[in-house]
Structure formats: C-alpha cells, structure tokens
Amino acid sequence: MKARFILAQHSRDIILMQKLLEYLGCGTLNDESNKYIYLTVSKYSELKDIIIPLLNKYPLQGAKKLDFFLFCDLIKLIENKEHLTDSGVKKIMEIKGKMNKQ
Fold first, then answer.
1. Angle of the 86-98 helix axis to the 63-79 helix axis, nearest 10
2. The most confident of 15-24, 27-36, 93-102, by mean pLDDT
3. Who wins on pLDDT, 102 or 80?
4. Residue 12 carries which DSSP code?
5. CA-based, 20 to 30 A from 96: which of 2, 36, 71, 82?
C-alpha cells in the first residue's frame, strides 16, 4: 500500500507543471493521455516533509480540503507503522473510501 499525491492539469499547462516540479524538488511528471499532465509524488519522506507542510502553509479550498485532512490521517497511520497491521489496513481502506468523492 502506497500513499500518493497527484496533481492533474491540462497538457497546455506543461510549463506550469515543470516549474512546480522544479519548485517542489520532488515528484515526477507524466502525460500518458496527451490531454492531461500529472505531477505525482509518492515517496513517503517527500509527502511528509514537502507536500504536507506546503499544503498546511497554503491551505486547499473547497472539496479537496477534506481530502487533504484525510490524506494527513493516512500519512500519520504510515508514520506510526499501523499500515503493517490488519487493523491499520482496515483504517486505511475506510479513509480511502471517503476520499475523492467530489
């Protein structure tokens, strides 16, 4: 089980996404569909040390704000090694089921 942060933009915004990748200093860009470009960060330390502090400093608005809080809960479970237990996996699946609903 792996946590990931994914940001998608229209492919016309490739320069913006490249600048964001450069600013963050982590993640990868992928443009599989030719319509969208995805910035993906999946390394735990980068999620914990770069993405979460950035989004705490510049909070998300709207529906994604709740997803961010749930994401932080997942990262805490991983940090506490709960993802290695059956009960932890169950908690993760419950949280995951609440995400990206809007």
1. 170
2. 15-24
3. 80
4. G
5. 36
- At the top level of CATH, the class of 1-55 is alpha beta
Domain ranges for the chain: 1-55, 59-102
User: pLDDT at residue 1 above 70?
Assistant: no
Given CA atoms 17, 36, 8, 64 in this order, what sign does their dihedral have? Answer: positive
pTM, rounded to two decimals: 0.85
Q: Write down the H helix ranges in the chain.
A: 14-24, 44-46, 52-57, 63-79, 86-98
47: Cα separation from own chain's centroid: 7
Cα–Cα distance list, 25 to 29, 51, 54, 78, 101 (Å):
12, 11, 12, 22, 29
Six-digit token string for 20: 């964001």
Distances (CA, A) of 14 to 19, 35, 53, 95: 9, 11, 24, 32
Tell me the mean pLDDT in the region 44-59.
96
